[in-house]
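Problem 12. The chain below contains 664 residues. Write out its predicted structure in token notation.
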Amino acid sequence: MPTNGVNRRDFLRVSALGAGLAVATACTGATPSPNEPTAAPVSTASPAATATAAPATAPVSKYSEASNLADRVKAGGLPPVDERLPQEPLLVECLEEPGEYCDDLHRAGGSANFASMYLWEGLTRWDYRTGSLAVVPNIAKGWDVSADGTTFTFHLREGMRWSDGEPFTADDAMFWYNDVALNEELTPSFPGWLKVGGEPVLITRVDDYTVTFAFAQPYSLFLEYMSFTGESNPPFAPAHYLKQFHPTYADAADLEKMTKDAKFEYWYQLYANKATWGSNPEIPVLFAWTPQAEWDGQARMAAPRNPYYFKVDANGKQLPYFERLVVDAMDNSETILLKAIAGEIDLQASYMDFVNYPLLKENEERGGYRVLEWVFVCDPCIFVNQTAADPETRKLFQMPKFRYGLSHAINRDEMNELLWLNLAEPRQVMPVQADPFYKDGMGKTAIEYDVDKANALLDEVGLDKRDADGFRLRPDGARLQLLLSCYPTFELGTSAIDAFQQVAEYWRAVGIETQAKEFENSLWYERAIGNQWDMPSYTSTSFLWIVDPGCFVPTNHAYWAPAYADWNDSGGEKGEEPPEEYRRLYDWYQAMKVEPDRDKFMELGWKLLAQCDEQVYNIGLCTPSIGPMVAKKDLVNVLAVGIHDWPVHRDALTWPFQVWRRQA
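Solution.
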């Protein structure tokens, strides 16, 4: 397939956003019959074009299924496969070739519900097969966008069913909207990704298989958000199952008893528990595998294939090919790595970090796997908190010369050699080459290692006095002390603590008392969004930042300005009102969301990024170039080059429902 030949560094030059994110059929590469509709591409000038992309329908006579499902049909335990599939199942053109049914797909993670990215199903999903990122139909067979870009009409698949066999219809979207999203006890704050111009979306049922999402203003980023947040937190829910836990529908006495029996105080706590497959394996799902069997909620999950899954291959075989998705919970990333080396993991990018690349390569033959070089786009960085609680610290942190001085004190070439095998690029936090907003020269501000320049800049901002130990004193006479707080992770392409301890050494060399320290990750996160860290240190979003903008915009709990982010996100009810310098970043981003003209959309984004590039609110280190993807050698239909990052849901990019094992 063409995707498998794409050069790693040229992969995913996303035409979205630069010329409108491509919207393609979910069966790209298939040859439609004369009577089958083909995808109508979205106009590159405006998202207000029509995006109807109905996949071809596999003939009923060609539908087939796994033998164990066929046995259940014969025994009367399941309806025939043609009755379980929607009238227009999603026809998946496999990456290499249609497959055969096979055994179990093995993975490992920090918990048994680590399977999330392999299970999520949204109305849309990301497609990567042609070497550029596209939004394609998934649960929805297509959509239309109004001429003014404010209304999106999604067409669902008639006859589609939940994993318990009950129909999936527009009523499931309306239940989620009316009874979950608009219920303040269940959802105290309406989902931000479904608000434009401060106004929440209006979701309307047109008929059983059609729903509209209407916004107060044009929403240029809606389809991207639908593929990002809308996949992990979809705007629909199994109404037929969840109504029994909702006071609008349940008998009050019964609901109170269920709440007490489950040891909850309030009904909405019970509902949240029952609405989450991670805590309730009984909830009906639309996933390829149903997370129910053999699961103790902790150590292991063995999820059997969903007999009602709505996708088929070109030969009419109902997907997925694998009988079960098996996920083992491991104590730490080292044990996960050892499991991979031993050949006990079939397909996985998560936890297969850049730091482990040499070891994984050395053991390919032993483990019977291949290491695919996916594109690693995480930038290790230090968030310089512009809303630091201490006034003197904040005053310093908001001085560009102070941030430049710190940056010039870092020897990135040495760090590249010590930590990243000289396979990383020294740079600041900016979009990487795969991102449509990338421009040559981005991320180069103040990255030269120059101790003299660093010392001069630090002197200029009032740190020219030192104590008896040689450490710099703040203008108020107190010693300047910095803490680089991180948590144990290898998501930076190396050990986080190793990277930030190295930075601490460089800063101590220019007279700033600096320590790097690890904290438990939930504590770190709580303090980071609570404005309690001066320099939270982690990794940035340098690819597809438009759906996760917190590294460049004071929003979404931005670690570099949490108090300003709280103010913006709460409409001024929380946090602190940002000065104009920071406010305009937020305003530009909000303007991007409603800008239908793609040229103007891009200009707004570049203006926003130019300010961040110049100001260096977050100090970057080096960006590793490789994100390892481990795949057993007997697997077929594995994406050779993908994006090893969160916004595209990492492992999910390889479409595990169409991966299969070739028998010897």
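Discussion. The radius of gyration is 26 Å. Students who got a different answer should revisit the alignment rule from Section 12.3.
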